[in-house]
Automatic annotation (TrEMBL):
UniProt-recorded name of the protein: Era-like GTP-binding protein
Organism of this sequence: Haladaptatus pallidirubidus
Pfam families noted in UniProt: MMR_HSR1
Lineage: Archaea, Methanobacteriati, Methanobacteriota, Stenosarchaea group, Halobacteria
InterPro entries with a match to the protein in the record: GTP-bd, P-loop_NTPase, Small_GTP-bd
Matches recorded under SUPFAM superfamilies: P-loop containing nucleoside triphosphate hydrolases (SSF52540)
Length: 213
């Protein structure tokens, strides 16, 4: 009888956990083209799952469709935070095919890529308005963060009342200035990192757990 009772209790605990646990939160990685979003997404995915999400490139708009890595479990301070990472295309107000000609592409390929990138921007905006529970906003700390696109996107994120963590990426570059980003968006906390070099990722993971756990 004791064994049977114990078995029922064990089954009940598993069943309760199965039907009461929350779905992983969908966290969108946003920002302008070439800010290092996919590099960051790959860094997180490799650190916690061993797999990458997508190819990285110095060519703008390498990510032209949102990519999703599900059930990424991040362990911080004795607890586990499970999220789905959504690596989104870089958002810009205009995608010009001539951008790609500068990277030794044929015109036909450049036009096709610019069309795909434009569609990717629309997809990223759809995810932002409909399908994410929080945002990691990645900025290149070696460039001016105070742009129309960044101001617009952060405004949309705020209007959606989504938790947002701003990351000042590329601190390994000589022209990096984290303070410039903090000055541009003082209403949000800014965390420095180099996703490429893996610098300060411990703090990034702590903040992900704090913001999205």
């Amino acid at each position: 009888m004791g064994l049977f009772t114990g078995l029922k209790q064990s089954v009940r605990r598993v069943t309760d956990k199965l039907f009461t646990s929350e779905e992983p939160k969908r966290i969108g990685i946003y920002g302008p083209p070439n800010a290092g979003k996919t590099t960051l997404a790959n860094r997180i995915a490799r650190d916690w799952t061993g797999d990458a999400i997508g190819p990285e490139s110095h060519v703008p708009h390498e990510t032209r469709r949102a990519r999703r890595k599900e059930n990424v479990e991040i362990e911080r301070d004795g607890r586990t935070v499970t999220i789905d990472i959504v690596d989104t295309p870089g958002v810009t107000t205009k995608v010009d095919y001539e951008e790609f000609l500068d990277h030794d592409m044929e015109k036909e390929d450049a036009v096709r890529r610019s069309r795909e990138a434009t569609e990717g921007v629309a997809e990223a905006m759809h995810w932002l308005r409909e399908d994410v529970d929080g945002v990691i906003y990645v900025l290149d700390s070696s460039t001016d963060p105070f742009t129309q696109v960044n101001t617009m996107l952060i405004g949309i994120i705020e209007s959606q009342d989504l938790p947002v963590l701003i990351l000042a990426n590329k601190t390994d570059l000589e022209d990096s200035s984290v303070q410039r980003i903090r000055n541009a968006y003082p209403q949000h906390e800014t965390i420095p990192l180099s996703a490429l070099e893996g610098e300060n990722m411990d703090e990034v993971y702590t903040k992900i757990a704090e913001y999205f756990g």
